[in-house]
Amino acid sequence: MKVRSKMLVSVLIVLVLTSVAVMATTITFWKFTDTYGDPLIVKYVNEWNQLHPDMKVDFVEIPWAQYTTTKLSAAFASGQGPDIFWVSPGDELRYYNAGVLQSFDKYLTPEQINDFFPVAREKVTIAGHIYGLPIELEPLAIYYNKDLFDQYHLSIPQDWNELLEDAKILTTKNRWGLILDPTPTYYELFTFYPFLWSAGGSVVNEDWTKSTFDSTAAIAALTFYQDAFDKYKVSPKSIPTAGTNDISTFVSGFGAMQECGEWAIQMLTVNPPKFKWGYFPIPPMTKGGTSVSVMGGWIQVVNKNSPVVKDAVDFTLWLFFKTDFEKQWCTVQNSKLPAYKSVYESAKDYYDSPIWQTFINQILPTSKPEPRYTPEMDLALENALQSVIFANVSPAVAAKTAAQQIDNFLSTYTGAH
Amino acid sequence: MKRKKREVLAGWIFLLPDLVGLSIFVILPAILGFNISLYNWSGLGKMKFAGFSNYTKMLTDPIFLKSLKVTIEYVFMFVPLNFLLSLSLALLIKKPSKGITFFRTVYFAPAAISLVSIAFVWSYIFQQNGFFNSILSIFGISPQPLLGSMGQALYIVLALSLYSSIGYFMVIFLAGLNDIPEEYYDAARVDGASYWQTFWHITFPLLKPTSFFVLIISLIQGFQLFDQVYVLTGGGPFYATSTVVFYAFQTAFEYYQFGYAAAMDFLMFIILVILSLILYKILKGGEVK
Questions:
Q1: Contact yes or no for B262/B245 (Cβ under 8 A)
Q2: Between chains, do A183 and B234 touch, taking CB under 8 Å as contact?
Q3: Domain that holds residue A15
Q4: What would the pLDDT profile of A41-88 be if each residue is shown by its tens digit?
Q5: Contact (CB, 8 A) for A307 and A299
Q6: Do residue A220 and residue A323 come from a single domain?
Q7: B235 touches chain A (CB under 8 A)
């Protein structure tokens, strides 16, 4: 081989090896687009990339509608899943059952595990192992227009009956009394669980052998929904595209009350409405009962099949335990409750503010983590809700049908719970 | 090489880019789709062979049957209405007159706007306390549930589809109308034919190739209804606007049953092929005698 040829081959080999090395140390990190929060993530990703020029993170924002439907599914189906991604608790089980999630057990110290709030730890624990790091805690409450409450001399409702009575008074030709979610999505279920739980109901028994949804409690919760949407017509059967997880629906005057999460505080503070507002715990079914909210919040997980799994875990641990990302995320960029005790303590001033007290003292203590059911179980529950809201199906029939569908599914289900 | 052979070769070379594109983007995905339909697959992990069980499952799935019914209802309304309205508009604006360009632009404009954007705006207009009910109240009509009604939501989806598509088909018809030689109309006028006689005996028969194109394309559009439903109603209320394509999307990307979703899509493909062939046979491929 001539010298020139040898040099050319050597250069090519070096180039190939270099490009392989560069590719091998790029960590892809996918998340849905969020104009409030993403700039903060970008800031920390840049910081990491400066500290680790040989192990860069490529942060990719994906529009919400694609992220929660086609993008992640299609990527994993074609073996092109990201190394790090965010998953909702309701969706976590599917990834676990498919063997996609990397366990964090061996990477976390006992101190770090103890730093999780119990409800946060429960969210990321499947079959006794920890999969991913909790990002935030997101309980639901009911936001209300204080000016209207004053105008009509209304007080904070203490049970479902009072909630409906207030909503009836507040409903006019141009305004709904109470905005609940009527769309057949996971979010609708997320917002329904507080009512189901407050009535003492559940979806499935402890060991997932039988559905418990055919119960007086579930029927009561479904009846409440039917009353709100159909009997008294205080809740809208269709909502603007923004959806009910967006407090702008409430801000626009579309409704006098809206069920929404604590993330709304930031939006209501940054873009205050023209009226005074407040929030209260979702009332229990009857006076004196316990108000139970649902605790949502995303989880940062690592793809077990990633070629850079250790680096992806390192980045995740660095982000949550070596930087003040979590504090900034919860208290500056958003208004969220942290998943870590130390962050809560370090941000005490922020959470001592009066606006947080109902969430912290009344809602948080009785909240339960968002359940993670399979898509088949979610579909059965969605159908139950949709049928009572729109098709005037008796709540008893809807509960029974859903329970049967879940039982049929569970009879052949072998995955985790 | 003989001249004829060279011509055949040249023909195949010209066809090649299309054939490659069709093979990669249509035929291959269709085959792969059919293959996936024979498996149970969550999109993650291993695929389990299921034979034709995903096809038999459709027969007992009430949501699929409901979605199929909605799709057929929609197609039966959309195809004729789209045909009649776009043809009527084309006839209205064919004759050059003062300000006709303005009307042509106005009628065509919705076809140039993103369907998703229009659907987004309509989702506000057709709220129960939205703009549409305000208009109704002026005429003393009580507020309607509209998008929240199982009986009304599909008609709003239909109206949106027509609003966004008739401008496009109007232009297609206009091109077809302009292709009809003016001499035929002159002869008919000399014979004393009325407007309707001219329409039925000259315009309509000579528009057959255009009509065939419009019917086939709108039939396919009708069966593939998705965007409007996705943005406007999410398939609700309680599946009142859930079409097969939308339900297949939900089945794949919300319920993670990719095999079952592929089976639905493949069935739709077969239905569309059969209906297109029937239409082709009835209209004799749009040939004009």
A1: no
A2: yes
A3: 3-131+298-335
A4: 999 999 999 999 999 999 999 988 788 778 888 888 888 899 999 998
A5: no
A6: no
A7: yes
